[in-house]
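Ticket opened by: R.M.
Priority: normal
Category: complex prediction / small molecule

The reporter submitted a protein together with adenosine-5'-diphosphate and asked that the result be attached to this ticket for the collaborator who will pick it up next week. Submitted input follows.
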Amino acid sequence: MLGLMQSQPLLISSLIEFAERHHGDAEIVSRRVEGDIHRYTYRDLAARARRLANALDDLQLQFSDRVATLAWNGYRHMEMYFGVSGSGRVLHTVNPRLHPDQIAWIVNHAEDQVLCFDLTFLPLVQAVHAKCPTVKKWVALCDADKLPADSGVPGLSSYEEWIGAYSADYSWPEFDENSASSMCYTSGTTGNPKAALYSHRSTTLHAYAAALPDVMCLSARDSVLPVVPMFHVNAWGIPYSAALTGCKLVFPGPAMDGKSIYELIEAEKVSYAAGVPTVWQMMLGHMKPAGLKFSTLRRTVIGGSACPPAMIHAFKEDYGVEVLHAWGMTEMSPLGTLCTLKNKHLALSKDEQMKILQKQGRAIYGVDMKIVGGDGNELPWDGKTYGDLLVKGPWIVGSYFKGEGGNPLVKDAQDRGWFPTGDVATIDADGFMQITDRSKDVIKSGGEWISSIDIENIAMAHPAIAMAACVGMPHPKWDERPIVAVVKRPGTEVTRDELLAFYEGKTAKWQIPDDVVFVDAIPLGATGKMLKTKLREQLKDYKLPGQ
Ligand code: ADP
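Result attached by the on-call engineer:
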């Protein structure tokens, strides 16, 4: 017997329809590439998304055709999130920080038909457009009078002129909720990038889950600033969850430095922000010397790479801001776990609570996870045993676009497919997962594993250290030994021996790095994460002490 409830597909268009009808006057504020602040409402957003949908129909774009963006976080990008997917096409957000050759490769692989870009990225478009034969329309996300006269990009249109020519009357089509809605390529640190192809169903389910109190806890009372880019994994799903909750949205545009972000938080009374640790490092670096405080910021989601405990502590104790540590990946839409306490933890001391809050957190309903050993058997949830982390759920990839890389899933005894995350983790008895490392970054010393994240976190707790990256170096006896590359905070001093002494008592003796290398900067990848492959290249002539 089937249930007798109405059958309505979960479509992205329903999110924007809901926001328009129930939160029509909630504000969306954007710092634009033009430098000014733009304000409008969900009602305006919905109308312009419909104009865009009419424009795409008029281009004769077919169902599931790909429309690409190279854009910052802003209202026009948000319109594309809804206009492109809502009309049945696939939004392909391209990461502008990738190398131009990689961008051309991705655009060709996705067979993008239209590419819309912020003018910041005109040089990038000039470099790649001739190599992208599938793109039949190039659009600059600007007013007609801002369009450069001599762009060198054939037929370049202004977005405003383009969509301005179409009506805001449009009925969103109804189709199978499993239809593709958007796509994002992994940064591809090894081999060619592979694309996660999200569906309307996966995206709307993820949007529901992300808004839950123990997840991102978004509400109509929040003013939300996603620093996390809309060009990578849908800004952690915030654009969709924002439409679902009707929160005020504040987009930082291209001004991603600590000062600009801080000023926007204050000016727009932001209560909630989201970003990777390196962004917050910059912001706290701007605020501390100037003695600045937040007047409205209450919570921040930090993820994408391990959030150093020292940062969680600084946010809480110095600024009164609660850090929600999150873990996920492109293949997971991206949210997998978030770290919030359970009822029984409320009686614990602050220090004991802090120990829990440093972990990557508990699984969200919709994500199942387990750790397995080399034999594929599940390992105990004791908070100590580590193994390969596997996940499954309705917003986790089953395979990559165009079958790239074959079947990524591993089967369990019940024949169910699990996605191997490439992360190594522990899970404790309460279900709190802690990432020990990426499997390729783990340091294997004398048959034991050393977590590079642990080594980095200790260094980052030293007042003179701004950033730390731990890598393994080949060793004739131990296979590998850890060393830590560090960037000093301006105006501070610490010697190699002082930093190594700082490790004493904080970790097992054999895990203390063999050496400290002082560097001006740690190489960062296209999503603001430390790029250890590059760091290892830079250190290729390095020799461990005594070798
Ligand atoms: P890419 O690095 O290709 O951009 P993702 O953005 O999908 O890929 O990154 C996913 C990976 O980032 C995870 O598998 C994990 O290694 C790392 N990661 C994400 N969040 C955290 C976190 N809170 N702590 C530690 N590692 C994290």
